[in-house]
Amino acid sequence: MRRIKLTVAYDGTDFCGFQVQPGLRTVEGVLYDALKTLTGEELDLIGASRTDSGVHSYGNTVVFDTESTIPPERFHKAVNTKLPDDVKAIASCEVAPDWHPRHTDCLKTYLYRADNAYVPDVINRRYAMHFPGRVDIGLMQEAAKYIEGEHDFTSFSNPQSQILKNGGSAVRTIDHINVAGESGGIITIEVCGNGFLYNMVRIIAGTLLDVGTGRFKPGDIVKMLEARDRTRAGFTAEAKGLFLKQIIYKN
Amino acid sequence: MRRIKLTVAYDGTDFCGFQVQPGLRTVEGVLYDALKTLTGEELDLIGASRTDSGVHSYGNTVVFDTESTIPPERFHKAVNTKLPDDVKAIASCEVAPDWHPRHTDCLKTYLYRADNAYVPDVINRRYAMHFPGRVDIGLMQEAAKYIEGEHDFTSFSNPQSQILKNGGSAVRTIDHINVAGESGGIITIEVCGNGFLYNMVRIIAGTLLDVGTGRFKPGDIVKMLEARDRTRAGFTAEAKGLFLKQIIYKN
């Protein structure tokens, strides 16, 4: 028995999110079926991030324990032969039997993409939120600086968050946020941190876009964070603009 | 009666090409329906480029004569309200009653995209040809120089080309070709010229990729052009990697 770690990319458009749901097409369900076809085993999959419906990934992590004799570093190539075009495993390796993708320190990088063109870009319509209108990138960059660092992110989390409901901490550390792009084109917001609450990146992206249009000032972020109240921050940006770009584990 | 020129973008994935075909979903058919809903008129559309099934566009041109009182420069916004997500008009204006998008001197720019990663990129799977393996970009750039300029492009055209069958000239002028990107990522081939034969850009892209893998040497291009024989050039690269990027009319 070996524990295999797969790094998984997917186009979230045609999935009802990552986590298995009976009767719905999910990333985990499709991976389960492919691994069952490949190994003949009914494997328990553990995913690092249960991305929402419509969210994309270049680097989600999945582990499972298998009796298969396929060499660990070739596992991703083997499973790709059983996967549809919109999910692919991009790397694989063996990890310690107790290694867990959600209980291991890591740095996650998310990318949010907004299409600022007046007419929505047909090619990016599945991979960016359409957000036309005048946007000041400089103000967004200024606001992003206030979000970086360690804060209580209650104002930037969906109140339905299981962690918050159970009285868990909303304190997280954002390592950095990079806002790039230009008015009339694709604006990208890269957010890197050690952990994220439910909808946190989408609320950060929506709030920064609200700063870009002038609805909020960059300095308003300080009061939003202090308020610990979801209604004080900006809108939740659409799922289709969000990419889980990379997860770097510390061990 | 006014002649309106529309600049049209589309994701070619779910279309059977540009030109109307009974019972099939085509770009021209979808535009016709939207314009009929908008104006109540059954309009004759004239397209600049009859792109193949699967080919994308950021700048195809369509003209039609209408009695509509919608201001010409706002026509694209009006028609967009009737168009599906995968076709959008990005500009519109009035042109002279005899202006014709295929009989007016122009410079067309095409972009070809190849995904050189070992595992196909899930997000680019509809917008790039998967072409894994070692590719030398420098050799492709060298070969591209031999294609630039005025030549007889019979070797780089589908023999089913109506123009060639009718004894028309295969002489065309390529203004420039830019090859960019890096091994393991997306390779782009931009081809700009005053006119193109059937499948010409896809055969140029396939031939340059064949040079990249070492199947041909850059200098072989000279003999290929001289041969005026399709079997001497490289493969026809897949439609889904091709974008009609822009058409610039000289008047």
Question: Which descriptors would you attach to this protein?
Answer:
homodimer; 251 residues; alpha+beta; 10-stranded mixed sheet; globular
Strand content of chain A: 25-35%
**Helix fraction of chain A by DSSP (H/I, runs of at least 4):** 10-25%
Per DSSP, the total helix count of chain A is: 6
Largest sheet of chain A: 10 strands, mixed
| N-to-C series of helices and strands of chain A | EHEEHEEEHEHEEHHE
Largest interface (CB within 8 Å) is between: A-B, 20 and 21 residues
SS content category of chain A: alpha+beta
Explain how this protein is built.
The structure is a homodimer of 251-residue chains. With 251 residues, chain A is α+β, with helices and mostly antiparallel strands. Chain A has helices at 27-39, 75-80, 137-147, 162-165, 200-213, 220-227, and strands spanning 2-10, 46-47, 56-66, 87-95, 106-115, 129-130, 149-152, 171-181, 186-193, 242-249. In chain A, strand 8 (171-181) and strand 9 form a beta hairpin. At the A-B interface, strand 4 of A face helix 2 and strand 4 of B.
Q: How do the strands and helices of this protein lay out in sequence?
A:
The structure is a homodimer of 251-residue chains.
Chain A: E1 2-10, H1 27-39, E2 46-47, E3 56-66, H2 75-80, E4 87-95, E5 106-115, E6 129-130, H3 137-147, E7 149-152, H4 162-165, E8 171-181, E9 186-193, H5 200-213, H6 220-227, E10 242-249
Parallel strand pairs in A: 3-10, 5-6
Antiparallel strand pairs in A: 1-3, 1-4, 2-3, 5-9, 5-10, 7-8, 8-9
Helix pairs in contact in A: 3-5
